[in-house]
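Hi team, as promised in this morning's meeting, here are the two structures we talked about. I've kept the exact order from the run log so nobody has to guess. The first one is mostly here for context; it's the second one we should focus on when we meet again. Sequence first, then the predicted structure tokens.
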Amino acid sequence: MPPKADPSVPVDIIMRAVGGEAGNAASLAPKVGPLGLSPKKVGDDIAKATQDWKGMKITVKVTVQNRQTKVEVVPTSTALIIKALGEPPRDRKKEKNIKHNGNITFDDIKRIARVMRPKSLARTFAGTCKEILGCARAIGCTVDHEAPQTIIERINSGDIKVPDE
């Protein structure tokens, strides 16, 4: 048998969960059971922390130290764009293949890019904005009533100035 884990050392568990819903205890058990935690309690903590992201799949980071859990939401650019669209929470079991055909402003894109900047692989802030515009294109929404691809082309040509930060 492997040695017991030291409870004073923080352990990070990164997983995808549905916002506002307690995760399946059976899927949480192999991750948190060896740390001496109840999967049901961790699932309830995740549900409480992801209440703002109701109905969306979101990445959460559960930090366990001394049998205490701290749940932190790690939003993806797609989740932030859908949240910026202001769509009502949906029931995932009933509504499938949703079209996110709303409109967001370029200021929303810049705000999301500032949040995602530490995770971005782009060298400049303009590159991060283009990454977010690519996600918006994949979702199917428009930016300032234009296709995200045209905004990317206007940034490349210099028509749209993006601040350094």
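And here is the second protein, the one for discussion:
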Amino acid sequence: QLVKENRNRNTNTDIINQILTNLESCDMVVLQILIWTLLVISAQGESIKGEEKDSGEECKGLIKLISSAGHVKEYKEDQEHMHVKAFKVVLKGCECYRLYERKKNRGRSYFVNKIGEHNIPLKKVGSLAKVP
């Protein structure tokens, strides 16, 4: 499949090069529209793939809390009693989490709903909960 995608990209690049060499006498607006159209066409189907939640299948998610010293703690389930001085969080999978400054899901909170790394605006993490 990767070979096929690379061939499609090479074909699109060749087409763009041929068109650009033949468009010496075109109006600039037409050229801009053509370039934007080709960029959109060549970008079709290329997206970041994450885990998707299938109906009936439990979603697998993981959240990592990272301290300023570089210590990493991973969690997959709700935590009502914890004391982690984290400054970054990394979300993997398709679940969302809410981090709380105090125990038992109380106090200031931070909602983590996008896969990747986030800076935490909380002083500490006292509890965390999955959000459906």
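Starting points for discussion:
Confidence is low (pLDDT under 50) at residues 1-6, 45-56.
The longest strand covers residues 86-93.
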